[in-house]
Design a protein that fits this description.
- The complex is a heterodimer of chains A (268) and B (258).
- Chain A has 268 residues and is mainly alpha-helical.
- Chain A has a single domain, classed as MetI-like fold, CATH 1.10.3720.10.
- Helices cover 76% and strands 0% of the residues of chain A.
- Chain A is built from eleven helices and no strands.
- In chain A, helix 1 packs across helix 11.
- The two termini of chain A are 34 Å apart.
- By secondary structure, chain B is an alpha/beta fold.
- Chain B has a domain of 173 residues: Rossmann fold.
- Chain B contains ten helices and ten strands.
- A six-stranded mixed sheet of chain B has the order 6-7-8-3-9-10, with helices on both faces. In chain B, strands 2-1-4-5 form a four-stranded antiparallel sheet, with helices on one face.
- In chain B, strand 4 and strand 5 form a beta hairpin.
- Chain B is globular, with a radius of gyration of 18 Å.
Amino acid sequence: MTVLVIILSFTAVLALVLILGNLIAKGASSIDWAFFTKSPVPAGQSGGGVANAIAGTVIVVGLAALIGVPIGVGAGMYLAEYGAGRLGFLVRFVADVLNGTPSIVIGIVGWTFIVKPSGHFSALAGSVALAILMIPMLARTTEEMVRLVPHSLREAALALGYPRWRTSLKIVARTALGGIVTGCLVGIARVAGETAPLLFTALGNLNFTLSVGQPMQTLSLQIYVYATGPFDEWHRLAWASALVLMGLVLVISLAARWVTRQRYGSVR
Amino acid sequence: MVASANTRLRLEVSHLTALFGQQRAVRDVSLLFPAHTVTAIIGPSGCGKSTLLRCLNRMHELTPGATVSGEVLLDNVNIYAPDVNPVELRRRIGMVFQRPTPFPTMSIYDNVAAGLKVNGRRPRAEIDDAVERALRQAALWDEVNDRLRTSALALSGGQQQRLCIARAVAPEPEILLLDEPTASLDPAGTQRIEELCHELKRLYTIVIVTHNMQQAARVSDYTAFMYLGSLIEVGITNEVFTKPKVEQTEAYITGRFG
């Protein structure tokens, strides 16, 4: 039994090691200064970088977090503190269904409601799609984190003459803050690697742009285009982009870990 | 009824019944808590003593399905009257729970100041004074005055409970409700809290729920014995323990049941 468990866990770790090893082996050599600072060059030429995609990823994901975090965390707070009734049940059910919705469907939603009415692809549409993807995740993790706060703390605050809303905000939310921030970071890391919702929304862009009203490149879209393209140079850049994206997600995950440790470290 | 004529009346419970759904946890209890006395409520587990206590600051009604009938008069005003705001009422009645409940994200200072700040903005110096006074009343000042800004969670269990007492008395409530405050403490911590009861009754009217009869005998002026939700007997502590009037009380005190 023990041997079986060891073999299985080793297999799980092996997958990660293989992916990371492969990425480093094929991508690391292509990463240089130009890779981070230059935009792509026309097909067939060598050189160029993915500066547009890196900036695009930060903007699209950042904007998605700006939209998704307040809504997701707010919904989670509602579910945990006031969600005992029928509306709470409904919200929870919808969040669970949304959580299981394929991300490409979310992309089509973004296309239908933003790209089509506005007449053009845009980073904003991509951000909205990613935010929709993020909201149910954040709502459920926030709810769970808030529920972990002992009931006795709530009672202590109420017995001191705290109104209910202030108890929720000042005592309960603050106590759960570490967990909520961790949940947000995990959610952001999760959507940072999404491609499908962006195909119909942010579309991709070979030029460097900071305008959220324009189509925008992201690392995931860049990888998709380069990896499916016919040129060796593109394949090389795709591997390198994948490595950078993986690194980005890893950094966010580590930040989540760090926040969690800060939180639970202080509680001894 | 146990109040002597010259004691100013503070808190009076009249025909109080508390329910959880259909289940009656407190049955038609009438009881008087004279000002500046310690009243102990004793009885076996599940006898309704904690529920009765939670009716005194309207915490009981926060449990879903919980309801109350009857009256609780604070200086002759029924706290269950429709025009009484329960949130404001709770600022006049401090409460300490079985287990210490320091707010984990707050420093020692902020914990004590928590109840003050919720009462509206006050000058900094005033809060400083109130925090020091409350910590002194809870006999904790000497142990923590050099680390007021550190986390309250670094304190020992007994210190945390005294911190909760300081937090409860900081807004200068009129009544102090203690719900088995020493249940999770060691003998030394218990002794400190009991000494505090003697100190604090000069300032507050104290109601203490306890399942420890020695504790009731040590700290209280009056003792009320409850069984199955009903008030069986109430009287001067010394008399209840030496010559109880009701057989059930005697049986409980002598350890024949409960």
